[in-house]
Amino acid sequence: MDSNVRPESMKRIVNLELANAFIEQEVNKVRAQVKDKKVLLALSGGVDSSVVAALLIKAIGKNLVCVHVNHGLMRKGESEQVIEVFGKELDANLIYVDATDRFLNLLAGVSAPEQKRKIIGGEFIKVFDEEAKKLTDIDFLAQGTIYPDILESKGVKAHHNVGGLPEDMKFELVEPIKLLYKDEVRIVGKALGLPDNMVFRQPFPGPGLGVRCLGAITRDRLHALREADAILREEFEICGLAEKVWQYFIAVPDMKSVGVRNDMRYEGWPAIIRAVNTVDAMTATIEEIPYEVLHKITARITNEVEGINRVLLDLTPKPIGTIEWE
Ligand code: XMP
Predict the structure, then answer these.
(1) Is the CB of 144 within 6 Å of ligand 1?
(2) Taking the model in full, what pTM does it have?
(3) CATH number given to 212-313
(4) Average pLDDT over residues 234-243
(5) Pick from 321, 112, 313, 317: which is nearest to 211 by CA?
C-alpha cells in the first residue's frame, strides 16, 4: 500500500476524541520507528511543524531536536516568537540558526518561482545536514508535510517539504501528519494542548516571504514586503478579520509605478493584498474586506512603508489563482 495515499477507511478527524485516538496511534508508531534515536525537526513555527513538534515531544521528549532556521524570509517578529514559545515556554530542545545571508545571497538575481523554491528547499536541507553533523545519533528527519502538500506536489508545485529532498539524504523521514488535511491538523494541535494562537495561526509557506517577494528578491523590497505584511496583520487583528480569514498576506511584485509623495515624483512598488478563505487549501474564495478597512490599510502602508506607493486588492478565487502568487 502506498503510504502517501490516505486510505478510504481513514476517518476524518472532526473532534478531540478522534484527535486523541490519532495522537495515541502516531505516538506509538513514532516510538516504534525511532526507538532511542534522535530526531531532527525543521521548526518553522507554522501550524504544521508546531503540531509535529508537540506530537514528537509527547512521543520522545528531549530526543527531538528542533532546529529553527531563520532563512531571512520570515514574517516580522516570527523567529523571536518561535524562540519564546518553544525555547522558553515549552522547554523544547531548540537550536536557532540565523542563515539570512546564506539564503539571500543564493537567491540574488533568481526570478523563476520553481527555482527559488528549489534553492530555498535545498539550502534548508544543507543547513539541517550541517546541524545534524554537529550532533550525535541523529538518524531521523521529521517534517510537517500534510496531505494537500502530497496531492499538489504531484503536479502544481515543487513544495520544498515534499519534492526537494536530495536523493542521497541520509535521514529517514518521520512525517506523522502527512495524511491529514489542515483542519484536522488544527484539531490535533488543540488535543495536544497547544495554545489557540498557535493552532489557529494562518498557514505560512515553507519558502516564506520568498514566494511573496515576486521575481528576483532584493533586500529592500523584501523589507518593504515584511513591513507592509505586518501592517496588514495588525489591522486585521484590530478589526476582527484575523480570527475570521483563513490566510491573508501581502505580495510585492518586481515592478514600479510612478507616484507623488511630498510634491515629488515617487516611484515605488505596489503592495498586493490577498485574503482568502478555504477548508483544505485546494480551493479558496475571497474575503470581502470592508472598504473602510482597505482605506486604512492603504493609508498606513503607503505612508509608513519605504518603497511602496500603491495598494492593490487581489479578487481572484482558487482556481484559477493559486493562493500564493508564486
Ligand atoms: P497554493 O499557492 O498552492 O497554496 O494555492 C496552498 C497552500 O499551501 C501553502 N503553500 C506552501 N506551503 N511550501 C509550503 O509549505 C510551499 O512551497 C508552499 N506554497 C504554497 C500556501 O500558503 C497555501 O496555504
Answers:
(1) no
(2) 0.82
(3) 3.30.300.10
(4) 96
(5) 112
